[in-house]
Description:
Layout: H1 12-22, H2 28-31, E1 35-39, H3 43-55, E2 58-62, E3 80-81, H4 93-103, H5 110-130, E4 155-156, H6 162-180, E5 183-186, E6 189-197, E7 200-208, E8 214-218, E9 221-224, H7 245-252, E10 257-258, E11 263-269, E12 292-296, H8 299-306, E13 320-321, H9 323-327, H10 337-349, E14 361-364, H11 366-379, H12 387-413, E15 422-431, E16 434-435, E17 448-450, H13 468-488, H14 502-519, H15 527-542, H16 548-568, H17 580-604, H18 628-631, E18 633-638, E19 647-652
Parallel strand pairs: 1-2, 1-9, 2-5, 9-17
Antiparallel strand pairs: 3-4, 6-7, 7-8, 10-16, 10-18, 11-15, 12-13, 12-14, 14-15, 18-19
Helix pairs in contact: 1-5, 3-6, 3-13, 4-5, 5-13, 11-12, 15-16, 15-17, 16-17
Amino acid sequence: xxxxxxxxxxxxxxxxxxxxxxxxxxxxxxxxxxxxxxxxxxxxxxxxxxxxxxxxxxxxxxxxxxxxxxxxxxxxxxxxxxxxxxxxxxxxxxxxxxxxxxxxxxxxxxxxxxxxxxxxxxxxxxxxxxxxxxxxxxxxxxxxxxxxxxxxxxxxxxxxxxxxxxxxxxxxxxxxxxxxxxxxxxxxxxxxxxxxxxxxxxxxxxxxxxxxxxxxxxxxxxxxxxxxxxxxxxxxxxxxxxxxxxxxxxxxxxxxxxxxxxxxxxxxxxxxxxxxxxxxxxxxxxxxxxxxxxxxxxxxxxxxxxxxxxxxxxxxxxxxxxxxxxxxxxxxxxxxxxxxxxxxxxxxxxxxxxxxxxxxxxxxxxxxxxxxxxxxxxxxxxxxxxxxxxxxxxxxxxxxxxxxxxxxxxxxxxxxxxxxxxxxxxxxxxxxxxxxxxxxxxxxxxxxxxxxxxxxxxxxxxxxxxxxxxxxxxxxxxxxxxxxxxxxxxxxxxxxxxxxxxxxxxxxxxxxxxxxxxxxxxxxxxxxxxxxxxxxxxxxxxxxxxxxxxxxxxxxxxxxxxxxxxxxxxxxxxxxxxxxxxxxxxxxxxxxxxxxxxxxxxxxxxxxxxxxxxxxxxxxxxxxxxxxxxxxxxxxxxxxxxxxxxxxxxxxxxxxxxxxxxxxxx
Length: 666
């Protein structure tokens, strides 16, 4: 397939409507003869499998979980964006499109982003019809709140568990199709390779995680909805099982990996407390609606807090630096995630961190509690309420909005966030990079599609909060079910794919050889220890900030660590049995290769944009400095074997509807 975006012609606002109305279709009688594999059952995968099953295709859905309900989409707590303009505050499809393009620092494809903004409105209607319990205003209308990087309220939410509720909605739709027989569900199965036959994706090799057996599964096309690869950093907000193997195995078969260095660092995570930790906990960005971020102005106060001699409550207002409000007055605490994260790092680098490690800032709800409390007192007709009464009333309002998040924070840290400010620090959260896809969400391998976080298409160099759920459901419910027809309409005369063909046999043998190679190393070090060491390299040299010397050093360190891994990793058990350590080892082996590509991509992109901050390229005020003349393109990397450098393909980004300019949230 030629390397092109296949974006339809016409005015931006009309592209999707015209294209959807004129694209190739598959008739109902033909859909019954076509098989589709969907890998992953998060929002993107469950929505796609359910919708394709409803349309009449024969779908096979795969998850490594014991139930689709356990997909990591449940962890997206804060909300989902949609351009409904229920608040009548000036929102529109174009404004959501523009905010997303700007928030991504002008490194995403205009047509894809505008389509996302258009279909966002349908998602809310779909979810409400499924019974998703969105928060509502007093009059019964769906409530909205603000998220970072925007000046309107467009985020729909179900308290602090939006992702879980949306996934339950998608899961019930999927369950309906499973009960009807249009979707066959394969729980506890992990995809370990994609099968290419005559240049097209025709199936996968999966490992039954309970028995260890390898299985061949054939279909007319394959959809990867397998999520992101943030766990290459070891410590992240992702579930421990989240991994990049499905996407990376596609890369090893010829698919392009786009913008792999674009990693999102989330500013509101519970700080790391020790070396023993295996993951970090996200505190929803929705907290930045009412919480104020600050550090002490004086290093001696910060030192006293770190040593336990003072608390945040001991610092008078005059000695607090609300640095986001000071640096970015127009957006304040609601600047985009990459901006807020770097600002927190700067504050801690200056010695103003408030955790024992020195790596934390405060997120304070005191003023919100008092503001809400006063409003409640007025509503209830309480005249001259005491400060204690105002606080009591305000805490109840905050509890209604964020109660489960506050409860989670207290259980993890032992501190009551109603009484003392939360401590937060940035952590790896989301990967904007992913498999390169065209307008149809098809990779450069015909018949291989990628949706949700598994692809690169919509977020550029930084994802705005509450847009992950939006993209996953948009792709699964409203985009892929149309665009997949462009490929499948040419396959209606193709008979069922034979899983006993030589291509399937060879691919299965390749997987078996990889697993046996890992089992036969019989070294002395655990998989976990290698993963932790890789994560430290990635965070130190390819994390919140990068520079050329550090990236060159990191690549060499990754190569050396990978060599050590293949000589000295220890994997107990047997390949043909239940073996979680073997699962982990295979994923970490892929992380070594993917991590190196991330470093190569970061070194090649000699500019700063969004989550990719090269220290050599910044403004006098320490903000990201883009180079639109030389780097306004998608970096799509082709795997060529690790004996030589990967090959770079460039998709030039053309901006006809927005003006390229330096982002400003001041």
